Structures are given as structure tokens and as C-alpha cells.
Amino acid sequence: MSEFPPCPKCNCEYTYPSDNLLVCPECFYEWNPEETEAEVEKENTGLKVIDSLGNVLQNGDTVVLIKDLAVKGAPKSLKTGMKVKNIRLSDSNDGHNIDCKIDGFGSMGLKSEFVRKA
User: Fold this and answer.
1) Looking at beta carbons, which pairs linking 62-68 to residues 24 or more positions away fall under 8 Å?
2) Residue 42: φ, ψ to 5°
3) Statement to judge: residues 63 and 32 lie in one domain
4) What is the pTM (predicted TM-score) of this model?
5) 103 pLDDT tier (thresholds 50, 70, 90)
6) What number is the average pLDDT over the span 37-47?
7) Domain assignment of residue 113, given as a range
8) How does pLDDT run across 85-96, given as a tens digit for each residue?
9) 67 and 108 share a domain?
10) How far apart are CA 1 and CA 55, in angstroms?
11) How many domains, in total, are found in the chain?
């Protein structure tokens, strides 16, 4: 049995010290054992974006469009099955919670309900 507390993210019991932090070998989460649990929870809660299938999206993910999307001012639409690489999550008020660059279209915002994780 380990003398160190389990990982607060995945409850792995095989944590080990590294300098003044503890490290989880399964999820690679690092934390200060002197922090309170409330501080750890506050750090872990943030922007949570879910795709059309219920998968949690993260910055840098690749997504696939599940619906043809018309683009204002563009002569053609974004087609179903188009891959969008290296997305950035945003918290905008207009409902577009994914920022990305699409070849041939440029920078734009997408709604997560029209994509699935690739």
C-alpha cells in the first residue's frame, strides 16, 4: 500500500512524489498534496464542451461535421464529414463554442451540436 494519497482525478493508488508535487502514473495529473480538495475541484472545473454524441471535447481535438452548414458570405457550404483539426474551445455568448480554422474558409466559430469527435 502506498504512503501517498490516491490521485484526486482518477483515484489511482500508485502515486509518487516529484519535487514538491505528487504525480499519478495513470492520468499524469500533478498536484500539491498541501492544497485543499476545494482548490483541486476549482482547478478541475472549467469550460466543458460536449459534442453531438456526448463526448467531452478538448483544445487541440479533431472533429468531424455531422451536418451540412451554410456559411454566410461564402459561395459553398461546409459538407458533412469534413474534418476540422486543432480546435480551440471558447465561451462565447452566441452559442458558437468552438473556434477553428478551416481550409478554404478561414477562421470561424462552430457549435458543438453539429460536430462529433474524430
Assistant:
1) 62/86, 62/87, 62/117, 62/118, 63/87, 63/98, 63/110, 63/115, 63/116, 63/117, 63/118, 64/115, 64/116, 64/117, 64/118, 65/110, 65/114, 65/115, 66/114, 66/115, 66/116, 67/114
2) -65, -35
3) no
4) 0.60
5) confident
6) 57
7) 49-117
8) 999 998 887 889
9) yes
10) 34
11) 2
